[in-house]
Amino acid sequence: MSVRHSSTEASMSEYDVKKEKETTQDVVAKEDIAAASYVSGQYSIPNCIHVLRNLKQNGRLYGKRFSYALELIKDSKNRVIVISLKDCFSELEDWIDYKFNK
Asked: Which segments carry the region annotation Disordered (predicted)?
């Protein structure tokens, strides 16, 4: 006895495969964007280092805390925070202290 699949079931499986492929493509696209922003985007490591150096020059970040902040910006989420707080030195310093003392 053969089992017949409805056209809706067949469409659903084609949709699921297509959806999976799109998801894979989306992931690759996101990785490409992240790789580009790592070096040259708004949230790039060089931009974050510039912000951290400004904090250091203003006497708000020094020693191990500065080194720790450099380690923090390896993570793209942390780079977004650093750039978002670049004009708020005290808040950026508080966030770095929070992460440092965690």
From this structure: 1-22
